[in-house]
Amino acid sequence: MLELPKSTQRFSRRVALQGLGVSLTLPWLKSLASAAPMNGSEKVQPPTRFVTTFFPLGVNTRQWGAKGDGEKLTFEATLKPLESVKQRVTVLEGLVHPHLKSLHSHAGKVAAVLTGEPGGRDGNRSGISIDQLIANEIGGRTEFRSLALGISPAQTGRGFYDSSISWRGPDKPLAKEVDPRGAFNMLFGDPSWLKRDKSVLDFVLQQAKLLNGRLSAQDQHTLAEYFDGIRELELRINRLEQGRSEWKQEAESQSPVRFHPEDPEGAGEFVDFALFAPENFREHTRLMLDLLVLAFRMDKTRIATFMFDSYGPKYMDFSFIPGVIGQWHALSHHNNTASSMHQYHQINHWHVTQFAWLLEKLDDVREGDGTLLDNTLVLLTSDMWDGNVHNCIQYPLILGGNAGGRIRTGRNLSVKDGSMSRLFLSLADLMGAPLKRFKEATDNYNSELMG
What we know:
The chain is of the alpha/beta class and about 450 residues long. It is built from 14 helices and 15 strands.
């Protein structure tokens, strides 16, 4: 007789189906959560997650921004993709690391976004980032204390500091996983034995059928949709790999060094998949965002970072966007030329579109009495304000989700002489990892965010 894993028999809130090395953690299911033993007044509710998404080179400031509140909230041209989720976001203005306002040039800015300390500039070695401070408090509750995902590989030399926004401390960046196959396999256990003509679902199918009889009709639907989504990801990854046969030989010849995302020793060297096949950049990006959503659904981690690109000598080819030609970095130095400014805006618009798409994907996932987006904080930012002059007088910032109803969304929130560090203290507090201080800040923006 087939038996479910012992954790399932105890009705744990997170069930992991096991099969020949595969570990498939199920999404949050109310049927199991409500049956789990609780202590005292403990409430049955999903956890809160936090992810920072990042793109370099700043924004076309003339077309970035928002005004109003609620139904009167309106967006400037670059933020128009947020219309579909306008009541689920907060556009933040005026926040900056005060001691970094005078920073010019690119050096040090990427590392400084979440740490408040420039890395690779004037001998500065950066510091610990807010996501890792939160992970120090709650990271032990999940298999991965945090995840770092991205599109572009890490760089060497000075570029070491321009390749990561997530830092465990000076000179200790988290290695980004940029390969969809690598990220998928990481979520499901050791894949070394896995035959590519079989689905990961094939190895847990019997257990899944046995479990299904213990679930409510709604949870059965959720589980079926979850399995369908996993299978779709497998097929999309296969298609992406099959379409890249020409560059795979070149990639393999480079013998990239690969680090596990939890390896604290270095940034690692990865093949730059997107640069070999720019026409696949859109699918590569969305596959990685889908895998981020899956990691949260599986509760593999509650803290993550996602980099659309790093600062460096190579940038993605955005010629697939109608009307965009030329190099992204060069376009950010638009010198107020109308054509360059418009193309710069178009690239910013593309990134905001992907951010909105991520929010929609999170909002499509039912979880408890709400959605996965309800239980997530999703930050979008860059390493500077105006890419034309490299200034840091404020950061472009959008916050999606409301951390279980604790943030009033659907508005533009402007803070005069605002502090990024105070925002970080709020995010840590909302994640259940309160901090007494971050850089110059000892107080948070909870009252402003709750509005």
